[in-house]
Design goal:
The chain has one domain: Muramoyl-pentapeptide Carboxypeptidase, domain 2 (2-Layer Sandwich), CATH 3.30.1380.20. 48% of the residues lie in helices and 16% in strands. The protein contains four helices and four strands, in the order H-H-H-E-E-H-E-E. The protein is globular and about 40 Å long. The structure holds zinc ion.
Length: 160
């Protein structure tokens, strides 16, 4: 049986501490998990795992953000990403075969120094999952730019 994780984790009881955390803590959880996975699975395995996890989340969320047109859908997605502070989604171009989307002020990499590697595989998968939910088919995603690679922005390429 597939659990509705969004529903489960959305139930928060923190009367004193509330629902927000410093972004540093989110990044620490994220990056420490990622580094450990890289030790265990190697670069490629860790990328696939993070990307697929993001993809699952994107698919689940996509079901809640439905719209008739791709423009309307991306607007809903952008509004959600802004409201939940994941980042500012900027569709650079979305064509028949592929799309290029930027995530400005990315939750994971924005402001990070250049450490010589791209790290937003979860976000890349997330964007792919959102498209999969809309298009009802599997798509390929690649992180093509990342602040952690010194590229000044977080960018995802999606191939339909
Ligand atoms: Zn990023």
């Amino acid at each position: 049986m597939k659990r509705d994780w969004l529903e489960i984790i959305g139930s928060v009881n923190r009367p004193q501490l509330g629902e927000e955390i410093p972004i540093l803590i989110f990044r620490a959880f994220r990056v420490f998990s990622g580094e450990y996975l890289r030790d265990i699975l190697g670069d490629k395995g860790a990328v696939v795992l993070f990307q697929n996890a993001g993809r699952e989340l994107g698919r689940s969320l996509g079901e809640k953000l439905k719209s008739d047109s791709v423009e309307g859908y991306l607007e809903n997605v952008g509004a959600f990403m802004k409201e939940s502070k994941i980042g500012l989604l900027v569709p650079e171009r979305v064509e028949k075969d592929e799309g290029i989307l930027r995530i400005e002020e990315c939750i994971t990499c924005s402001g990070m120094p250049n450490i010589g590697m791209r790290i937003c595989h979860f976000e890349a998968g997330f964007v792919a999952g959102l498209f999969e939910s809309f298009l009802r088919k599997k798509v390929k995603a690649t992180e093509t730019k990342c602040n952690a690679m010194g590229e000044g922005v977080c960018e995802v390429k999606v191939e339909f």
